């Protein structure tokens, strides 16, 4: 066509390598550079992005990278496929709000109406400064595909061992510096020279790595918030492990921190939890507010409680089954507690108690008003003067019956009267 320039004829990218399973998008671009035969990085960057001023993101994808797909008619994948299956975006937004999930996806695909700062994507673990690889994965890739490539799973900074083979990950010779954003450094025998595998002897550390992998690979719905279910699952695990009191909701942070220190190397643990007080703050925020600061902290707590993600069944069902068990146990007590006392024993708000009981088919046994009479709202206080030893004896008896002193004294009065106080 007349008037067509050389730049116009270069708009279409005639070939592009298909991504391998779990391959980092940056690695795909590196393989394209090798196959292009371009002697300079800038020429390849301009071919791909239309300008040599683009900065590539190692863990994710450059903003607006979806424009590449418009120039590759034969390429079967979509920008969403790349974001969800070949970047660390699912891992980084796994426990984010729906709004942040959508914003980041829009930013990466180039459809965002406002800028999402790259700081939102930072992995902060301080000791990860190189692209990493698993020697066993590298040997398998070379045997099956004839070349090495960077696996996205291995680039999760908190991961210490390969979740598939259980061997320690190794640093390559490629440093993760700012200059890498304008360079193509493919995985090769030269950049990954050590092919000797060292097994990870710590089974819990391996389980931790597998949990991180699930955070990355589990299906991600941009319109769903996973944090409430995740918090409920951890709460259920802690109830079973004895870290969380079913009556008061108190978290035994000292026991939790002690067990974490026994389970993980101290130097590794300190990367995510400063001290016992920090564990208490983070654990309380997760359980009570479903607030997550870093997925690594949640993964450590999950692995310590031996819970796998994604959850085998709906966490809310697990919680309700546990509550039903406690509810029936309280119902069979000799002394009938008040409604707020039942709520405290279950560790739930008072306003949700009726709904929880109805879902489990349990009648509200804490109401003892005679049929046809309205429950009196006004309450009165009766003073009982006791000696110190008398008060101690009453308290011991109330503790034996697992109730409060007030409920025990009401029980004694009703037993003497032979009926409920309101029915006399």
Describe this structure in words.
The protein is mainly α. The chain is 44% helix and 2% strand. The protein is built from 18 helices and two strands. A two-stranded antiparallel sheet has the order 1-2. Helix 9 crosses helix 14, helix 10 packs across helix 12 and helix 17 packs across helix 18. The protein is elongated and about 95 Å long.
Strand content: under 5%
- Counting DSSP H or I runs of 4 or more residues, the number of helices is 18
Q: Shape from CA axes? A: elongated
Q: Spatial order of the strands in the main sheet?
A: 1-2
Task: Give the number of DSSP strands.
Answer: 2
Give the low-pLDDT segments.
Answer: 1-10, 312-320, 368-376
Tell me the radius of gyration: 30 Å
Protein traits:
about 425 residues, two-stranded antiparallel sheet, about 45% helix, about 0% strand
Question: Outline of this structure?
Answer:
The protein is mostly helical and 424 residues long.
Q: What's the arrangement of secondary structure elements?
A:
Blueprint: H1 6-9, H2 25-36, H3 41-49, H4 79-85, H5 89-92, H6 98-109, E1 130-133, H7 135-145, E2 170-175, H8 203-217, H9 227-241, H10 253-263, H11 266-269, H12 276-289, H13 295-304, H14 315-331, H15 339-346, H16 353-359, H17 388-400, H18 405-417
Antiparallel strand pairs: 1-2
């Amino acid at each position: 066509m007349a008037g067509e320039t050389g730049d116009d004829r270069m708009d279409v990218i005639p070939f592009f390598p298909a991504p391998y399973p779990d391959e980092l998008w940056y690695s795909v671009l590196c393989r394209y550079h090798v196959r292009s035969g371009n002697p300079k990085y800038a020429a390849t960057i301009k071919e791909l992005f239309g300008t040599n001023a683009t900065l590539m993101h190692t863990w994710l994808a450059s903003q607006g990278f979806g424009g590449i797909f418009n120039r590759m008619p034969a390429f079967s994948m979509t920008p969403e496929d790349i974001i969800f299956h070949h970047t660390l975006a699912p891992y980084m937004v796994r426990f984010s709000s729906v709004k942040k999930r959508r914003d980041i996806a829009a930013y990466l695909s180039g459809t965002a109406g406002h800028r999402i700062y790259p700081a939102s994507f930072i992995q902060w673990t301080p000791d990860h400064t190189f692209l990493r690889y698993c020697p066993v994965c590298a040997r398998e890739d070379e045997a099956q595909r004839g070349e090495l490539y960077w696996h996205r799973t291995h680039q999760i900074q908190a991961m210490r061992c390969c979740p598939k083979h259980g061997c320690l990950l190794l640093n390559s010779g490629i440093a993760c510096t700012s200059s890498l954003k304008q360079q193509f450094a493919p995985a090769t025998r030269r950049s990954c020279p050590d092919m000797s595998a060292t097994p990870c002897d710590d089974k819990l550390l391996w389980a931790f790595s597998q949990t991180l992998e699930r955070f990355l690979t589990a299906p991600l719905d941009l319109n769903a918030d996973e944090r409430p279910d995740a918090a409920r699952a951890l709460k259920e695990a802690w109830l079973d492990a004895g870290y969380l009191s079913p009556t008061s909701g108190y978290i035994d942070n000292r026991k939790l921190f002690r067990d974490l220190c026994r389970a993980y190397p101290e130097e590794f643990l300190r990367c995510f939890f400063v001290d016992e007080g920090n564990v208490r703050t983070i654990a309380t925020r997760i359980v009570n507010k479903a607030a997550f600061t870093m997925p690594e902290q949640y993964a450590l707590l999950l692995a310590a409680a031996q819970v796998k993600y994604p959850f085998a069944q709906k966490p809310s069902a697990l919680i309700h089954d546990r509550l039903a068990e406690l509810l029936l146990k309280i119902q069979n007590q000799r002394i009938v507690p008040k409604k707020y006392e039942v709520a405290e024993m279950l560790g739930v708000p008072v306003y949700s108690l009726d709904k929880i009981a109805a879902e489990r088919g349990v009648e509200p046994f804490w109401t003892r008003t005679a049929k046809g009479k309205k429950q009196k709202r006004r309450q009165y206080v009766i003073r009982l003067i006791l000696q110190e030893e008398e008060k101690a004896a009453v308290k011991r008896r109330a503790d034996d019956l697992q109730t409060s002193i007030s409920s025990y004294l009401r029980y004694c009065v009703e037993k003497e009267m032979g009926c409920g106080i309101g029915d006399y």
